[in-house]
Amino acid sequence: MPAWFDALRRLWRARREHPEPDAAFWEAVERTVPYAENIPAAARERVRRLAARFLATKTFYGAHGLPITDTIAGNIAWQAALVAHRTGLGIYDDFIGVIVYPEPFRVRRRFADEVGLVHEFDDELYGETWSGGPVIVSWGTGEEEGMQVALHEFAHRLDLADGTLDGVPLLPPTLSRARWEAIADAALARLREDLDAGETPPLDPYAEEGPEEFFPVATETFFAEPAALAAWDPALFAALAEIYALSPSTSPAPMQHSPRTARSP
User: Fold this and answer.
1) Is residue 264 included in any domain, yes or no?
2) How confident is the model over 203-230, as a mean pLDDT?
3) Which residues are bridge partners to 124 per DSSP?
4) Residue 251: pLDDT band by 50, 70, 90 thresholds?
């Protein structure tokens, strides 16, 4: 029997044994997402449907003995679905699993400098992803500093959907690449100016790393602190609303956060 057929049969059996989560399940999940109330009700209905499909088609692995509970899997699936609100889940077709750590994790880095010397060091990460690889997130970490780790990593997947991690996500027909790059470049320049002036813009300083980190950090702020982002840069807020085909409520008070120093690629 072909391996792909056996995999499909296992998936079909799993979906029969685990019926689609009901409204009560998603209401409980949304209580664990600190910014869920910012998402319009109609968009949340689509997010729930997409998240149910994500749960049915992806595998979750707990690292360092972390048990994958319904809450953990549901929360991560919901945030993955939010990022895929406009595009659908096709942007996630190139990976099958999500690895969840109970805390930030370390990876060994190795690089050669301009004179050929090789350097090695341990890098502490909250999350990581790459083309064709899994999505890796740490559970329950970073939120006190305002981080939305799962959102950040799934936004990277939206960026990777065109094959390149360059800060330009899969764009809607209404938003050209040139217009997005102009808006993002201007916002990144203003972020650097604000930080140099000692101000506290709503975007995390990690966005300074470059366009490939600016987009996921902007995504975090768009969903978690929409009022603050809309006031700081209306053009950026409007462009992200086109990218995600929804506009978070700007009525609630923005979430409070403090500057962060450690992030993930």
Assistant:
1) no
2) 96
3) 106
4) confident
